[in-house]
From TrEMBL:
Residues 18-29 have a biased composition (Polar residues). CDD domains: ENDO3c. Residues 1-101, 361-399 are annotated as: Disordered. Pfam families: HhH-GPD. Residues 1-17 have a biased composition (Low complexity). This is HhH-GPD domain-containing protein. Residues 175-335 form the HhH-GPD domain. One of its GO terms (biological process) is base-excision repair, AP site formation. GO terms for molecular function: oxidized base lesion DNA N-glycosylase activity. It comes from the Eukaryota. InterPro entries: DNA_glycosylase, HhH-GPD_domain, HhH_base_excis_C. Residues 378-392 have a biased composition (Basic and acidic residues).
Length: 399
């Protein structure tokens, strides 16, 4: 199936204005408060809103595209003691409070709506030239990133989708959700040690949720991730008669994406990583680093969620730049003092300076690097490269 061209990103999209509710009078508020305190217990659930301008610098990762992975899993009113011991057991209600079928339908509807066009058709950034400029700057700072001829599953780290097995790539990416690279690697190594090696899917399925949860607890959110992994194994076996998803190599990008996000706990970011690294497709995955930096560059609306940012950037960034630019943005987001979480604009980051007009709504309008960062040939000066490379010295290399 041919991919829809980026021209469709220019299509007009209807917008809606949220209704504004008039504030209650002080007397009415007091009456409501009194009624709530006598009729029911106050809810302990904390509602959060996506706000790219107030991200915490203490959090390692926050991925909002994975429907089964909240920052704090909701408490269950009552737990069946046998639930964790059955590999076939599945929660009827997800931690987010909606049924799996409802969440699946919501994800697929959102994907179908924006699979070939941006949710922000009037937002003109990044242009192809802006994407290539950023790619050139990041390459000069961190080195080029090119796709390898063959995909090999790493043994020294969990990775994020880089495995020749689709199922293994998916599980590795799930382990990487909402945690650091070091923690996901510890979880993968622990899981392999407990079950006698990598890809021991039958043993994992037979062992049940309690055993898997204990094996991967060092990676964070083990209770939720163990259920997600077991649910995927159960569905793969039931649908295809084997613990394998390698049939996706024969699927189109859209077909593979739809099937992946159809699994509970798998959102656009996770699915896009599997497409990009395992299936070797041109998909622009948006993790917390990519989302943060593209906001700084003015490549997305300030209020855009990660899922919306993925849908927007995937149609605007040229296919030939998606692999390298994704990896370089992740790398830069980890090591640049100005672009990492909680970083401050010191006016020295070559990437941010190149897009300094973004605050005026014309991101990338000044395509030239500032003079102090260029040599006589127009290339980034060695001292600028060395500064960022020195910061990256002790960092793990991104795949």
């Amino acid at each position: 199936m041919s991919r829809v061209t980026r021209a469709s990103a220019r299509q007009a999209a209807a917008t809606s204005t949220p209704k504004v509710t008039s504030p209650l009078s002080s007397q009415a508020r007091r009456a409501n408060i009194k009624a709530e305190s006598t009729d029911e217990k106050p809810s302990k659930r904390k509602t959060t809103t996506k706000s790219p301008t107030k991200s915490s610098s203490k959090r390692i990762k926050t991925e909002d595209d994975d429907d089964a992975l909240p920052a704090t899993p909701a408490k269950r009113v009552k737990k069946d003691p046998s639930e964790d011991d059955s590999p076939a057991a599945k929660p009827k209600v997800s931690p987010s409070g909606a049924s799996p079928n409802t969440l699946q339908a919501k994800k697929l509807k959102a994907f179908d709506q924006f699979s070939a066009k941006s949710p922000f058709p009037d937002f003109a950034h990044p242009t192809a030239e802006e994407a290539k400029l950023a790619h050139r700057i990041l390459t000069s700072l961190h080195g080029a990133r090119t796709r390898p001829d063959t995909v090999k599953a790493p043994t020294s780290r969990a990775g994020c989708g880089d495995s020749p097995s689709v199922l293994d790539a998916l599980v590795r990416t799930i382990l990487s959700q909402n945690t650091s690279d070091a923690n996901s690697t510890r979880a993968k190594r622990s899981m392999d040690a407990v079950y006698g090696g990598s890809d021991e899917w039958a043993a994992i399925a037979a062992g049940g949720a309690s055993k898997l949860q204990e094996a991967i607890k060092c990676g964070g959110l083990a209770a939720v991730k163990s259920k997600v992994i077991l649910g995927i194994l159960e569905q793969a076996k039931a649908r295809y008669g084997a613990y394998s998803l390698d049939h996706m190599f024969d699927k189109t990008d859209e077909e593979a994406m739809r099937e992946l996000i159809g699994f509970q706990g798998v959102g656009p970011k996770t699915a896009s990583c599997v497409l990009l690294f395992c299936l070797r497709r041109e998909s622009f995955a948006v993790d917390t680093h990519v989302w943060r930096i593209t906001g700084l560059l003015g490549w997305r609306p300030k209020t855009a969620s990660r899922d919306e940012t993925y849908a927007h950037l995937d149609v605007r960034i040229p296919d030939e730049d998606k692999y390298g630019l994704h990896i370089l943005l992740v790398k830069h987001g980890k090591v640049c003092d100005e672009c990492k979480a909680g970083g401050k604009n010191l006016g020295k980051c070559a990437l941010r300076k190149a897009f300094r007009d973004k605050a005026k709504g014309v991101a990338g309008a000044s395509p030239e690097l500032p003079d102090e960062d260029e040599d006589e040939n127009g290339d980034v000066k060695e001292e600028t490269k060395d500064k960022v490379k020195e910061e990256a010295k002790d960092e793990d290399e991104e795949s």
